[in-house]
Each structure stands twice: as structure tokens, then as C-alpha cells.
Amino acid sequence: MKKIGLLAMILGLVISGAAIAGDAEVVTIEGKVMCAKCALHEEGREKCQNVLAVESDDADTVYYYLAANETNAEFGEVCMATPSVRVTGTVEEKDGKNWLVATVIEPVEAS
Asked: Where residue 14 falls among pLDDT bands split at 50, 70, 90?
């Protein structure tokens, strides 16, 4: 009986977490994709990680780590390239970093 109660509680937490994640606002952000390891030289990074760098109005750069999903995999790792892109998806904060779960990544033509 205790196992059933525990399973019900875990299932409730999973469902409520999915509902909260499902309420995330969809945003579209333009910036340059670069690699946290190769271009930004992030300490402790052993593998390439795509990051969207966005210049803010106050000249600071805001970084959005692109979450590992099918959209990011199809775009591919950029390593030392820094293409300008427009990314649509949801943003969540995790471990003190902004993570962008992309649904669309499209190149931005240079003007």
C-alpha cells in the first residue's frame, strides 16, 4: 500500500512539473551561435556546446545555452564559426544559466 501511495505522489509531481514546463512562454531571439568550449573557452567544458550570444542594450552579452534536442542536433555544432541566427523556443534557468530549448533555428541574412 505504501508503494502505491509513493508511486501516486511521484506521478503527481511529474505531471505537475510537465504542466509548469508546458506553460513556458515561447520567445524568438536573434544573436550569434558560438561554442562554449572552442570560442568562449569555458573552463571545465570537455565537449562542444552551442550557445546563443545576444548583445543587450547596455552592451553586456547575454548567453543562452542551447539544450540538446533534435533541432539543435540538426543545426550542428558550430565550434569556431559564429553564424547569426534567429532561434524560437522556450527559456528556462538551470544551474544559474539560461537554457534555450529551441524549436526553430534559422540563419539571419547579413544586412
From this structure: very low
Domain spanning 26-107: CATH 3.40.50: no
Question: Three-state SS for 68?
Answer: coil
Q: Is the pLDDT of residue 4 over 60?
A: no
**C-alpha dihedral over 104, 24, 63, 32, to 10 degrees?**
20
What ranges do the domains of the chain cover?
Answer: 26-107
How many CB atoms sit inside 10 A of residue 41's CB?
9
- What gap in Å lies between CA 62 and CA 45, rounded to an integer? 19
Query: What is the grid cell recorded at 95?
Result: 544551474
